[in-house]
Specification:
about 35% helix; globular; transferase
């Protein structure tokens, strides 16, 4: 998929215009970086305790057991090891080249209870939820699930303004003031997952910032397990 097509399909073209040239430049830089870079693989990570009914995370309260990727990925295979290493390297690159305080890469999968979810494969920042249900019901409160179902990006440059206007928002970290949630598309054009970037300041998602984030979205699917 070319950058212009991604902008069209994700709904970003109207808001940010044709930033294809900037995206392709960022995409090439990231591709070159990944030729030699590998990241540290985390097969398990801490997650917040879920509230009553499992809908919301209790910020600052960690679950007793860490989340393990082994069951949903089918084990610690060489292919999975390589995939997670490259996705971790992408997260490292994004951290180095953006101002974002939190970033995660999620893949659409079926979990161990046969439910469609977005599962977090690589990230940096504070502990956060590992799986988001890919259901229309959960999408009512979750940008991640909304984007994972629709394939349309959601960029919120001011969370307080969005909430004041009546927008529903899944609060993982109350310090977050801006969020960009973008879809991932596989080679056939099917929604393969999402990326989520968050910042503790408002008005951070400028055209230059979006060019980098879209470039990441165009590279990630090549490395999904």
């Amino acid at each position: 998929m070319q950058a212009y097509e991604y902008l069209q399909r994700s709904g970003l073209l109207d808001e940010y215009g044709d930033i294809s040239a900037d995206i392709e430049r960022e995409r090439q830089a990231l591709t070159d970086y990944l030729k030699t870079a590998d990241g540290s693989v985390r097969w398990q990570f801490q997650v917040p305790e879920l509230g009553e009914g499992g809908a919301c995370s209790l910020f600052g309260q960690l679950a007793a057991e860490p989340y393990s990727l082994l069951p949903i990925l089918g084990g610690q295979t060489p292919a999975n090891q390589l995939a997670l290493s490259k996705l971790s390297a992408i997260a490292d690159y994004y951290q180095q080249h953006s101002a974002q305080d939190w970033f995660g890469i999620y893949q659409a999968r079926i979990n161990m209870t046969a439910e469609p979810v977005l599962v977090k494969l690589a990230y940096y920042g504070a502990p956060s939820r590992a799986e988001f249900p890919l259901t229309s019901e959960f999408a009512k409160i979750s940008n991640n699930s909304t984007v994972g179902l629709s394939g349309r990006a959601r960029v919120i440059n001011s969370v307080p303004a969005y909430l004041a206007a009546g927008g529903e928002y899944y609060t993982c970290d109350p310090k977050v003031q801006a969020e960009a949630c973008l879809p991932l598309f596989d080679q056939s054009g099917k929604i393969a997952g999402i990326v989520d970037a968050e910042h503790f300041q408002q008005a951070i998602f400028t055209p230059a910032a979006m060019a980098l984030l879209v470039a990441v979205c165009m590279v990630v699917p090549d490395y999904l397990p």
